[in-house]
Amino acid sequence: MSHTETHAFQTEVNQLLKLMIHALYSNKEIFLRELVSNASDALDKLRFEAVSNDALNEGESELAIQVSFDKDARTITISDNGIGMTRDEVIANIGTIANSGTKKFLENLSGDQAKDSNLIGQFGVGFYSSFIVADEVVLETRKAGAELADGTRWVSKGEGEFTLETVEKASKGTSITLHIKEDMNEFLDRFRLKNIISTYSDHINFPIKMLKTEWDEEAKVEKETAEFEQVNKATALWTQPKSEISEEDYSNFYQTISHDFNAPLTQIHNRVEGTLEYTSLLYIPEKAPFDLYDRDRRYGLKLYVKRVFIMDDAEHLMPAYLRFVRGVIDSADLPLNVSREILQSNKVVDKIRSASVKRVLDELAKIAKEDDQSRYLGFWKQFGNVLKEGLVEDFANKEKIAKLLRFATTHTGDAEQTVSLQKYLDRCKDEQEAIYYIVADSHAAAKGSPHLEVFRKKGIEVLLLSDRIDEWLVSHLDEFEGKKLKSITAADLKELAEDEAETLSEEDKQAREALTEKVKNALADAVSDVRITHRLTDSPACVVTAEGGISSHMARMMEQMGQSLPKQPPVLELNPEHVLVKKLEQMEDADKLQQWALFLLEQAQLADGEPLAEPGVFIKRMNSLLAEVM
Ligand SMILES: Nc1ncnc2c1ncn2[C@@H]1O[C@H](COP(=O)(O)OP(=O)(O)OP(=O)(O)O)[C@@H](O)[C@H]1O
């Protein structure tokens, strides 16, 4: 007996639908690409599972997609004889947003349609695109191998709820009927539908069929017959010779497999013959998906063996730091029953993977060399932080990745990351000892750091690092082209001081020693040392990391991640040319000296981005010192 159950959409789904309909209005025809792509996936899955269980074919030998329409009933139907879904799968896949990343994405929506429409570009389109053209969608499905009576009908107007009913369905697979909106008449047209199919889905791996038409002499019109004909080429795109594939074909195929509605930045298509035989078609997207940093996000390539689909998201084919790469690997050397476990320790896969990584990195290097930097910088903006992970993760390709890095520096002055390490070396003096950098919590903090003063004065460029991953990045990048990377907040920067030390009189040297000794005594445990600085020109003092110690920025990051480290007092460096420090030199009163020394330490810590342990005490101290001099 069949009964109808009504379910409410999750609120997020409603939100998503509204947004999608608005954002994709000018691109409405992609609904067909998305539904055909889902149908093709379902056929792929069936073909794969039927390899070990022929009964799933239910006696049908051809796997195909049918697209038909009924002008009078105002419907378009897309059906496949693929894997189908059980009732539970329908509930889980359609009308629910299970993925936590998606939920987070939706929580971030502002409610401002124009603004949110841009965001939707980061979001996979998929089944919901049906509601751009339809005011009601009926999905009927039956899992391959299940009883005929175990079909499921899902119906929704895309407004808050859907109904579910158990129905009998003779053929396995899924059929989706769209009740077309009044203003979408253009799609109730054979020519239009056929056109969309050949534009977007020509190279789907399966035949797409439509009813044949015949000229009716009497009525003087083309009339549909009862016979189906194939309307796409159905040749897997990657198997075609490059010379026969247009940019548009590549782009449409990318959009089909990625559900991205932006075109890709580029593609890399190779056929490899010899000891190993495989084809790879890799895409670098132009825009990052919303869940690029989501740990649960699936990544990897689609794996085929001799054109039979094996699995999606074969993560072993791409390292995590290239998780944005999409595409297909079709191997002739793997068995059809290859599993994820086997992939993890398979020599063929390892070779394909390392060759694919190399191809992606080489392609990026090629784009990075273009005269017009906009393509590469666009890529860097979207994926740079992910690529940086590679420096930590992929030792073998460290040098290649280092060349692809881009940084903000004191040379350009803005926050845009545009400077390569090579460029830095090209314009630095040969005798410069190191590639200098500073890591801070934000670009503004890095740029405003007093540590930069001497570098500015000497005209030495400094990399300004402020992305979360940067501290790790520099801890894994000791040198580039033979030059060491060095933090400007590290304890020893003696190379910058030499010239000055030589010109100092004996008397001055002694006075400075006395000063540091005095301040060190006053500050006691609050510092691990007090020194005369080489780095400041305008500020009175700064804090630096004690030799061999963890930088204060790193310590703060570890703390945020719940790992607190034993507190290491900083080294305080004093600028002897600064008026406040000069006054300190002459100060006799021990108590007053201590107050001023603490005050200098606290402001140096603030400038370093270190939150003060007791801001109230700092303010009180400052006010009482101000009151004295006013
Ligand atoms: N024709 C179909 N046959 C079988 N299952 C289907 C079919 N269409 C959709 N599905 C199931 O519903 C799920 C959700 O489909 P939907 O198009 O919303 O997202 P998707 O295909 O996973 O892609 P993306 O999230 O990248 O847009 C699919 O993953 C699949 O499991």
Automatic annotation (TrEMBL):
Provide the alphabetized UniProt keywords: ATP-binding, Chaperone, Cytoplasm, Nucleotide-binding, Stress response
What family does this chain come from, according to its entry?
Belongs to the heat shock protein 90 family.
What's the name of the protein?
A: Chaperone protein HtpG
Q: What does this protein do?
A: Molecular chaperone. Has ATPase activity.
Ranges for the Histidine kinase/HSP90-like ATPase domain? 27-184
Outline the segment boundaries, as ranges, of region: A: 1-340
Stretches for region B: 341-556
What quaternary arrangement does the UniProt entry report?
Homodimer.
**Species whose genome carries this gene:** Thiosulfatimonas sediminis
In alphabetical order, the GO MF annotations are: ATP binding; ATP hydrolysis activity; ATP-dependent protein folding chaperone; unfolded protein binding
The listed locations are: Cytoplasm
Q: Which residues cross the membrane?
A: none
